[in-house]
Fold this protein.
Amino acid sequence: MSFLALERLEKRYPDGFHAVRGIDLAVERGEFIVLLGPSGCGKTTTLRMVAGLEEATAGTIRLDGGDVTRLRPSQRDVGMVFQFYALYPHLSVRANLLFPLENTGLAKMQREVRVDDIAAALGVTHLLERFPRQLPGGDQQRISLGRALVRQPRLWLMDEPLGTLDSDRREELREVIRAQQLQHGVTTLYVTHDQEEAMTLADRIVVMDQGVIRQAGTPSEVYESPADLFTAAFVGSPGMNRIDGLVTGGVCAPLGLPVALPDGPVVLGVRPEYLHPDDAGPLRGVVVMDEYLGAWRNLHLDCPCGRLVMRLPPGAAHRPGDAVGLRVDPAHVLCFAPGDGRRLA
Ligand code: ATP
């Protein structure tokens, strides 16, 4: 049995808005799950239902074998980490970090060890006797994260905890969160709309859209093998190229690829790194933008089949208006249904 199970979980807000539409998810003990999706897709609502801060309209939440759907938050033993986690201004950093460990049944000695461990992990040991007002904002944020991580409940629930930080600090604290999670084995649900964060942190990514789960899989599964066009476009920066195709007698135009699909329209998906410049290739395009990104360039092309993006080595500069021929890696072309966008092959 999985450690955390969401079964047909639904949330309809009092105004009638159907924010979560019957989702199923099984999470193993110690897994790091990232809920990823655009704003408004129901990530926070799902997390808040697991925390007990929002009542489920229908469905069941099971935690460690028990039905917790109707339990109060305090009865679930989950830790919620928000973006802003205020520090007590009248308490020292040490006292702020000790605070969440009160009433946990841990001996004083163990509590001190926990605080020392988390302070070391966050690089704030030298600040333990200071007061929050004496510290710059960056250190305060580090310590507020420490307050959340110092306790190890049955679940960590994190809602964009690094959302407001600059990118250097995000990366640094991302590492701390993952290291602490691995060290203590706390099963974690983490909400973000930042796919880089999702890719680097997750054991499995759950892609959500309009209150449903589109796909749950490892980062490489959702990237390499998206279940539908939504996931293909949402994951990846830029997302997967989409080319309208037509299958006739086992051959798919406009790429001329053999496919084992019935005759008719199909949508082809190709990641930018699997398109290559080739004057003899089946596609032609005109350069509209050449984005230099240091380690590579993204070349945006207008083609008869629509706008395509090709990832090239950094040295391969093009000018707007240049004509370019393209070929694709046949092994990396995916096929989707034009109607509901589900993956066909
Ligand atoms: P974001 O990244 O913007 O926080 P999200 O995926 O976490 O997005 P939710 O916060 O779960 O999305 O919200 C899902 C939908 O439910 C949104 O359209 C939101 O406007 C709506 N919603 C949230 N709270 C309420 C409420 N109390 N009453 C009515 N609708 C709500």
Q: What stands out?
A: Residues 167-184 form the longest helix (18 residues). Helices lie at 43-51, 93-98, 108-122, 137-149, 167-184, 195-201, 219-224, 229-234. The radius of gyration is 24 Å. The chain is about 25% helix and 35% strand.
